[in-house]
UniProtKB/TrEMBL annotation:
Belongs to the LysR transcriptional regulatory family. PANTHER family: LYSR SUBSTRATE-BINDING, TRANSCRIPTIONAL DUAL REGULATOR HCAR-RELATED. Gene3D superfamilies: Periplasmic binding protein-like II, Winged helix-like DNA-binding domain superfamily/Winged helix DNA-binding domain. GO terms for molecular function: DNA binding; DNA-binding transcription factor activity. PROSITE patterns: HTH_LYSR. This is LysR family transcriptional regulator. InterPro entries: ArsR-like_HTH, LysR_HTH_N, LysR_subst-bd, WH-like_DNA-bd_sf, WH_DNA-bd_sf. Residues 1-58 form the HTH lysR-type domain. Keywords: DNA-binding, Transcription, Transcription regulation. It comes from Subtercola boreus. Pfam families: HTH_1, LysR_substrate. It comes from the Bacteria. GO terms for cellular component: protein-DNA complex.
Amino acid sequence: MDVRRLELLRELAERGSITEVARATHRTPSAVSQQLRVLEREAGLPLTEKAGRGIVLTDAGRALARSATDVAIALERADALWDEFRHDPTGEVSLATFPTGGQMLLPGVLHRLARQSGLTLHASDRDPVSEGFPDLANDFDIVLAHAPTRPPSLWHGRGLSVIHLITEPLDVALAPGHPLAAQASVSPADLIGEQWIGVPWGYPFERTLYDISAAAGAPVDIVQRFADTRVTESLVAAGLGIAILPRYTAGGAYLDSSTASQRIVLKPLSGMRAERHIYALMRPDRAERLAVRTVAEFLRAEAEAIRAANPAPA
């Protein structure tokens, strides 16, 4: 069987439609369909079947798609082994990151890459809900993802290589003049009656708000919802509500440049766990590429440097 046609079958298993495979592989849908029909003749079994207005893989098709993944991994592993012999992790690597993950990790990673000749990283910002991150791995070599659990159950079964990079505490953000700003920490009971700047439905920080509500025995009053933490920060600074924000990407970002005063104050939550877990997700064949492995190692090293610079409170 032709390896390129096997890869098309694998893409169909991952993406779910001929149209999406055509888009991803820069072919026409008719060209993809034709290649899959040739693969069926080579296999001697039906690999797809009609389902409504589209098609789905048969049992044989799903089994062959899994084999196509094994073939892709073996080919990338062979290329990586040759690159290791040549000590040559060159090439281009694409990376998708949620905004605060890029804010935290990308500057240090790009500085490390600047010392590695022949290796280029192309990064883009993306911010889906938790279950959407694995889909990005179809189009990017590495996906920086975050979730409230370790690892999320929604990511199981996708066959991805998953690297846990760092656990980041989530703090309560307050205006400097807020009555709770003088406390060393705040408890869920302290937060009863507060107005909250929340996140869109399904975003990881939402779970922390539910946990606060459950621990306090009272509902949280969410008056606004934003995906962009910069908007949230500005509303908190204006005294229009409080919020949950990630600790490592908060810090020095909240100094007013004109007065050098704090715009917001971050306080840890007491009596409950509030954190997010940050991962690198990769399709297993791409994870074998030496260039991709090198970038993944730089991500690990940068995450370790951030952990060392932000030790847990005693």
